[in-house]
């Protein structure tokens, strides 16, 4: 898990480089899927902390 998180972080940092103007499809999918995963984890933690689930 830690390795994939570091990979996603470096991918996001590489997207800001000016050498590449077109965002690679694989990188975009990786960033979006990481954001969705983190969102689901945050919802799970929020649900557990408020005891609504």
Secondary structure layout:
Blueprint: H1 2-15, H2 25-50
Helix pairs in contact: 1-2
Attribute tags:
0% strand, elongated, mainly alpha, 53 residues, 2 helices
Description:
With 53 residues, this protein is mostly helical. 75% of the residues lie in helices and 0% in strands. It is built from 2 helices and no strands. The protein has helices at 2-15, 25-50. The longest helix is centred in the C-terminal third of the chain and has 26 residues, at 25-50. It starts with a helix and ends with a helix. The model has no long low-confidence stretch (mean pLDDT 78).
Oligomer: single chain
Helix and strand element order: HH
Number of helices: 2
**Share of residues in strands:** under 5%
Return residue spans where pLDDT drops below 50 for at least 5 consecutive residues.
Answer: none
> How many β strands by DSSP?
0
Alpha-carbon Rg, integer: 15 Å
Q: Which percent bin holds the helix content?
A: over 70%
Structural class: mainly alpha
Whole-number mean pLDDT: 78
The coarse overall form would be elongated
Distance between the termini: 25 Å
Q: What kind of sheet is the major sheet?
A: none
Summarize the structure.
With 53 residues, the protein is an all-alpha fold. Helix content is 75%, strand content 0%.
